[in-house]
Amino acid sequence: MSKDRLFLSPPQMGGSELDFVKKAFDSNYIAPLGPLLVDFEQAFCELTGFAHCVAVSSGTAAIHLAMRLLGVGPGDVVIASTLTFIGSVSPATFLGAELHFVDSDPQTWNMDPDLLVRAIEEVQASGKRVGAVVPTDLYGQCADYDAIKAVCESRSIPLLIDAAESVGATYKGRHAGYGGDAAVYSFNGNKIITTSGGGMLASDDGKFIAEARRLSQQARDAAPYYEHTTVGYNYRMSNVLAGIGLGQLDMLETFLARRRGIFQWYANALGSLPGMEFVPEAPYGKSNRWLTVMLIDEAKFGAGPEQVRLALEAENIESRPVWKPMHMQPVFVGVPCSGGAVSEDLFVRGLCLPSGTAMTEADLERVARIIKSTQS
Length: 376
Hints:
Strand order of the largest sheet: 1-9-8-5
Distance between the termini: 24 Å
Structural class: alpha/beta
CATH architecture of the largest domain: 3-Layer(aba) Sandwich
Number of helices: 13
CATH superfamily of the largest domain: Type I PLP-dependent aspartate aminotransferase-like (Major domain)
Helix content: 25-40%
Order of helices and strands: HHEHEHEHEHEEEEEHHHEEEHHEEHEH
CATH class of the largest domain: Alpha Beta
CATH topology of the largest domain: Aspartate Aminotransferase, domain 2
């Protein structure tokens, strides 16, 4: 293990982040609020097309705020993608709601709109209310917003899009996330752009975002003293971290081009191997290719994804299985799922490859060489 660690998706600084952070320090706005935070929110509105944004401490915090403001509460059911990260769905449990998971469409790996209809019918037949539908944009590819929105609108169900992984991706020419009642983005350290840790809640509803902003600052009422008529949270992003975000936004197009280039390099180098295929790109949009994900048919390739992962790890290279579906998680035993076979298969066969924007040609060749060496 003499070689440097090659991480799955490490952050990369573009150069101007320190300039923005210095502005924060020079102005002494190092508390949660400040002009850089305002600028970051405005810049994100301009990127996504949403009229209003509020920056918070994480994508999970943003989902929590959104679900609360959409009225999700005890006795409700939140219907969500099963193939996702737990932060997409855990806020429903914070609010006392139940969950119902929906399997993936094999052509996009995202929420299957037909199975969503089945899920809604099952929930409503049980006499419970669907509090929200939460599709996840998996690995930087948008879900089929229009199809899902049509299902939700016809039943007056709020649509909250989890675009945590899809900053910079597009759906029918629109930025990822635009199309629901609200959308959530993540700036965790492993995402396309980062603020070290943070998230964004976006909506065209100004009152919705204003109340989210208030709740994110402990729900302090408009009074000269600290008065609270409801309980809020300490969820606000800091002005310093917003400065990092502004610097990262300057690099977004460069990062997107590099991620897509990395995906194409892997596809060219490995796609013709027997039993090897890569995550498809939906015809309705353009993925940001946040992570390059391949599927391995062990019988045809001669090695399974875990064997490949261990071979990479032995050479100090990080790779990771596809998200374990939520309906398979021990914490959600007994939670219903409409479908399940597609996401289970993706979990069994899928492996995420190192996809960081700073990867060199030599890094890519190193990964490909090790993967090929496992073939028998």
